[in-house]
Design a protein that fits this description.
The chain is α+β, with helices and mostly antiparallel strands. Helices cover 41% and strands 20% of the residues.
């Protein structure tokens, strides 16, 4: 991993498998490159969800990512473009990070959290079958922020998940 002022480069040894190309990855296809690592995930030894969805999730959060499959050099590279917040001069990896840098007080952060949880409750009351990725897209927050809000709302008994992991829905109390 190389971190520069204007970008972050992640270089992985080994090119993409023969049947996989950057275009296919951008379309949502994936292929297991490290079956040993995946076996640890499957056994629950590593805390990870969404096998094969990392690039898609990264692109959902930040569209300024370039992928290079260097077959000759036997490398796969991801280049994440960074932007600079002109008002503070700080470098950020995402638009969300710039927004967080500009929030200067704890008070505004608390207001933002309350505002987000209210929006989540309204969205789920209107569409109880909404998924977390749909909430992320609608609220323009990152996945972790939405998951934290959902957990807090469930802990406060304002929200409940009804049914199995797939095919369930939300109940707003």
């Amino acid at each position: 991993m190389f971190i520069f002022d204007n970008r972050i480069e992640i270089i992985s040894p080994g090119h993409l498998p023969n049947n996989l190309a950057v275009e296919k990855i951008l379309a949502g296809n994936s292929n297991i490159r490290n079956p040993i690592l995946v076996s640890y995930i499957a056994k629950g030894l590593l805390p990870y969800k969404g096998i094969g969805s990392g690039i898609r999730r990264a692109l959902d959060d930040w569209h300024k990512i370039e992928f290079i499959d260097d077959r000759e050099g036997c490398l796969f590279t991801a280049i994440i473009q960074r932007i600079t917040d002109k008002s503070s001069g700080k470098v950020a990896v995402s638009h969300r990070e710039i927004a967080l840098q500009q929030e200067s007080s704890v008070k505004s952060s608390v207001k933002s959290s309350v505002k987000s949880s209210g929006k989540i409750l309204k969205l789920l009351a209107d569409s109880p079958n909404m998924t977390i990725p749909q909430l992320v897209k609608e609220l323009r927050l990152n996945t972790r922020a939405v998951e934290k809000q959902l957990a807090k709302l469930q802990q406060d008994n304002q929200l409940k998940r009804i049914g199995p992991a797939r095919g369930s829905h939300w109940q707003v109390n």
